[in-house]
């Protein structure tokens, strides 16, 4: 299976990126984590993007806060799908990173998840890889089923706590 790249703009982003790594672990998807900054290490960012596919990556997740250009600059230099996670890291509560990540010009897409949406970034990456991996597809189907059952159980418990009819 192709690996997922989990790239963050600063080590300070790690607590908000860790849920993506946890979800990839849960789904048994191989990944590598990197700290690469669009502004502080732009040469490394481009070199990473240009060589990612030949190094076995299938999807790149890029997380950054503030004026978050990491996902966009990586997307500019690879045909791999890039998923952006805007990180809440400033006085603007992540709105700055959301707009910087999502407002890409036509021609260079970044699939942007919610502010601090690391879990959905991992699931979206998994869904992309599952297009050519039946085993992973089955794990995703199972994960959805467990999720559905949890909500139905919550509903049942809530209705029972409030004495509502079944
Ligand atoms: C962004 O600036 C990083 O992705 C991080 O979210 C934010 C702050 O970085 P540090 O100053 O903590 O390194 O580039």
Structure description:
Helices cover 47% and strands 17% of the residues. It is built from 6 helices and 5 strands. Helix 5 packs across helix 6. It is globular and about 60 Å long. It binds 5-O-phosphono-beta-D-ribofuranose. 5-O-phosphono-beta-D-ribofuranose binds next to strand 3.
Structural class, by secondary structure, is alpha/beta
Unreliable stretches (pLDDT < 50, length at least 5) are: none
- How far apart the termini lie comes to 45 Å
- Contiguous helical run count: 6
Distinct small-molecule ligands in the complex: 5-O-phosphono-beta-D-ribofuranose
Rg to the nearest angstrom? 18 Å
Shape: globular
* Most strands sheet: 5 strands, parallel
Give the proportion of residues in helices.
Answer: 40-55%
Give the strand order, joined by hyphens, for the main sheet. 2-1-3-4-5
Task: Tell me the total number of β-strands.
Answer: 5
What proportion of the residues form beta strands (DSSP E)? Answer: 15-25%
User: What is the average per-residue confidence, as pLDDT, rounded to a whole number?
Assistant: 97
- Which H/E pattern describes the elements? EHEHEHEHEHH
List keywords for this structure.
binds 5-O-phosphono-beta-D-ribofuranose; 47% helix; 17% strand; 166 residues; alpha/beta
Quick description:
With 166 residues, the chain is α/β, with parallel strands linked by helices.
């Amino acid at each position: 299976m192709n690996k997922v790249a989990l790239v963050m703009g600063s080590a300070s982003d790690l607590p908000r990126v860790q849920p993506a790594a946890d979800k990839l672990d849960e789904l048994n998807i191989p990944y590598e984590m990197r700290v690469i900054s669009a502004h502080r290490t732009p040469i490394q960012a481009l070199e990473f993007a240009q060589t990612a596919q030949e190094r076995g990556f299938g999807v790149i997740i890029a997380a950054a806060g503030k004026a978050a250009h990491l996902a966009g600059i990586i997307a500019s230099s690879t045909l791999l799908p890039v998923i952006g996670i805007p990180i809440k890291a400033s006085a603007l509560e992540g709105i700055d990173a959301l707009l910087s990540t999502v407002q890409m010009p036509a021609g260079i897409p970044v699939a942007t998840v919610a502010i601090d949406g690391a879990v959905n970034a991992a699931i979206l990456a998994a869904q992309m890889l599952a297009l050519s991996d039946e085993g992973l597809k089955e794990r995703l189907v199972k994960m959805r089923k467990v999720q559905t059952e949890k909500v139905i159980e919550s509903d049942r418990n809530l209705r029972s706590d409030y004495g509502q009819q079944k």
